[in-house]
Amino acid sequence: MRKYKIVFVCFLLSTFLFTSIDYAKAEGGSSPTTDSSTVQLKIPTDIIGSQAEEYIKRALTAGYVKAYDDKTFKPDAKVTREEFLAMMVDALDIPTEQPNGTETSFTPILNAAVKGNLYQDDYRLKWSDPITLSDAALTLERATHQASYARIVKSSTTQSTSTTSLKNSYPEYAEDLQILQSFKDLNVKLDDYDNPKVLIQAITEWYSRKQDEFMDENSKQGKNYCIPTMGEANCVNPTDQKIYPVMERYKSFLQRLAKFSTDLSKTYDGFEPKQRVYESVRRGLIQGSGQGKLALDSSITRAQAVVYIERALSYNKGNDLPVDKYALELAEVYWHQTNIFTKWSNYLGIENSSKFDTSKLPYESKYYKGAITGLYIIDLDDPKDPFWDKLQYPLKDLYRDTWAGNRAFPLTKSKDAYLIVYTQTKNQFKSKVDLQLIISGVGEGHLNDGGMTKERQEQMSRVAKGSFEVQQNVVRKINNLKPGMPYKDYEGMPAEYTNIKIVPKKNIKVEDSVTIYLTTGVVGDTNTNQRVMNIRPDHIKNLPPESVLSNPRGFYLLDQLN
């Protein structure tokens, strides 16, 4: 009798293990099973040796993805929008409800995804269609959004650096902090800057209580209490007079810090879809399919879906993921037509990446009507840079313009440099006027000084002899231009200007603000100097300043542009 009971129990168990779920139907095969213990006993044979094998094993063990009844995984099968969102909801342990009689089994999953901010009407096509990489990236970004925000607030390029730069502009900081810390009844950690608004409230409430004490001090001496800013008019409040300016300065410091946090929060709350794709790549959740390719329109497979989800789970646990730098540049261009924040991320600060205003790229005046279509930073030393095709001319035909002495030096002999390349539409007016894109504040040195300062004269002399230390225009050879040979400006021969500039990577002088603007260069153009971006990278003020008495413009020495 016991023998038959054992057989019957085994039969029931096997039936339970291979029960299917209707929201995960697979084309051309049976449905995935629901119990992850099956795969712990038997690994699907079609994942052995796969690059995604370990990821799939973890997913099977976790139970958010299933093996099929025929004990295969079908790693190359396409994943539908419905299946991918169901995997994400399950992997993140977002609670779901049971469907009612009129709902499909997917309805509670969709409702849970919306409630958990995992899906906000991001893609609307048929749920049964394969999901593309760009659509999957939207869900992956939302799945890691809070973890990313927490990281960036604490990162060295944002909150801590912003705190440091604000301290540098607050000379009384150390003394004021010591004075406030000396008051034993101010029970708050004054240098905990993760929550500046909480500190502001605590200090304000403390000072309100102290005012009662100050009133008593005056009352004992028969005088009225007065506001510290009015001085010693007819009151005696020496303690108040001592701490009032200290408190006001420190609160001002905290308020600026709180504003930074608020601005960052607004930026994070306002991501547009293409920015979410960029963020997914920046966090290491998705990578490119090869040099110069991101394949956002391609459908993803079951194996790829598992890899992406496992990366998201790892990221949320605080792990750093490898980032495909080429894919990141492509994703940034996909987002807002430039890769400048990827190439110069440590310099410009990722918190400023939303300040590149693409609405300012179209330009119209009485001299020019058209638009800038892209701004690309190319690493001159990297033959695999994904944007070499934006150069338009052979490298051998391009020369550095020295800005002084009208001499040119070949780019093929240059190194440790970035090329700044912009593309534009043709002028819709019948005019030879072109649109120029200018990046100000990066490597211009003293060549833009007002007047002929000593520093400018010395730098012009060095540059004229071929010294590469400032941002320079790039000219294209037309005839037999030789290195160091004088050439005629603009439309003359044997060289002409291009939409390319070159800037050194190392030991470069930068200013505390970076501006990108468009201009035709025509005197009297009413729309000249149209700003695309104007930022002040916080951490620039932490660099060694260059003090030049004859030049009011302040420079900071940057050992590496990125």
Please outline what is shown here:
The chain is 36% helix and 14% strand. The chain is α+β, with helices and mostly antiparallel strands. Pfam families: SLH.
Describe the protein's architecture and organization.
Helices cover 36% and strands 14% of the residues. It is built from 17 helices and 12 strands. The strands form 2 sheets. Strands 1-2-5-8-7-3-4 form a 7-stranded antiparallel beta sheet, with no helix packed on it. Strands 6, 9, 10, 11 and 12 form a 5-stranded antiparallel beta sheet that branches. Residues 1-31, 33-41, 156-160, 484-493 and 547-552 have low confidence and may be disordered. It has helices at 2-17, 37-41, 53-62, 81-91, 107-115, 133-143, 145-154, 159-168, 173-181, 196-220, 238-269, 273-282, 302-316, 325-336, 340-343, 345-348, 454-464, and strands spanning 362-364, 369-379, 398-401, 408-410, 417-424, 436-442, 472-477, 495-504, 506-519, 530-535, 545-546, 555-560. It is of the alpha+beta class and 562 residues long. Strand 1 and strand 2 (369-379) form a beta hairpin. Helix 4 (81-91) packs parallel to helix 13, helix 6 (133-143) crosses helix 12 (273-282) and helix 12 runs antiparallel to helix 14.
Helical percent range?
25-40%
Helix and strand composition category: alpha+beta
Mean pLDDT: 82
Order of helices and strands: HHHHHHHHHHHHHHHHEEEEEEHEEEEEE
Span between N and C termini? 77 Å
Number of strands: 12
The unreliable regions are 1-31, 33-41, 156-160, 484-493, 547-552
Q: Order of strands across the biggest sheet?
A: 1-2-5-8-7-3-4
Main sheet: strands, sense, barrel = 7 strands, antiparallel
Radius of gyration: 31 Å
Strand content: 5-15%
The global form is flat
Count helical runs: 17
